[in-house]
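DM from R.C. (forwarded with permission)

"hey, sorry to bug you on a friday — could you get me a structure for this? deadline for the figure draft is monday and I only need the backbone to look sensible"
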Amino acid sequence: MALISVQVISSGTHLVAKGALLLSSPLTVALLRFIAASAALLLFQRLRGSLKPLERRDWPAFLLLGLLVVPLNQGCFLFGLSNSTASHASLLYALTPLVVLLFAGRLLREHGLIAKTIGVLVAFLGVGAILFERGLRQELTVLRGDLIILVAVFAWALYTVLSKRLLVRYDAMTVTTWAIVCGTALSLPALLIPGAIQPLGTIRPEVWGALLYLAIGTNMIAYPLWSYALKNMDASKVAITANTQPILTGAMSWLLFREEFTPGFIAGAVLILAGVTWVETRR
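My reply, with the result:
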């Protein structure tokens, strides 16, 4: 249930973030989003009585997680998405399970990687079928944005694997809170760049709404749920669920824009669900 919630929220993230970037700059969206998310997470932890000091030996690990999840992952995601499309972002993030499998095998010594790889490849074929049918081959002008998003994908996969070790000693909300706070702190020097953030009075209401969704929905709800799933499951099994996002994004597009479900979309959805089911049922 945690992973289902994560994928529903994350599928909306691509659409919401792209909408915000059409009305504002990537740096404005990124900095305001994570400043708001850090404040909200710290307040929540304080109210529930869980804002406790971290062990000194774990600070370097949290700083690394912060670097991966904020400047590298979400920073590159937003800058890349400003030059790319939501469909391209979905396809590239579908590479997450493959990268996680690579890292998990090396760093976490997970077993059964061959069987999991089969499921990941089947699901990835489904993603490709959906996105190629939606005109991926005709959108080659966004290669620059795609390459930046690819950096974000690798950063997210490495964050997923490395946070698994900290989840042995800390709960999911604590890991998420301090990773985002550390990452936000590392990003604050960007405020010194002239014109880094547009004047607050000029930010449109739609952008504030998008920032609220990204800070609360994505960072404060989806990220801890992702960490909670990681605490109780193999990293590779958690990562494969990212391949359901194109299905959910397609459903949202149908609800919002009345986009039709084509035979290619249905075939791709079947492959995705088959791959995810295969991985989730391996022991």
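R.C.: lifesaver. The CA atoms of residues 138 and 161 lie 34 Å apart.
me: no worries. The radius of gyration is 18 Å.
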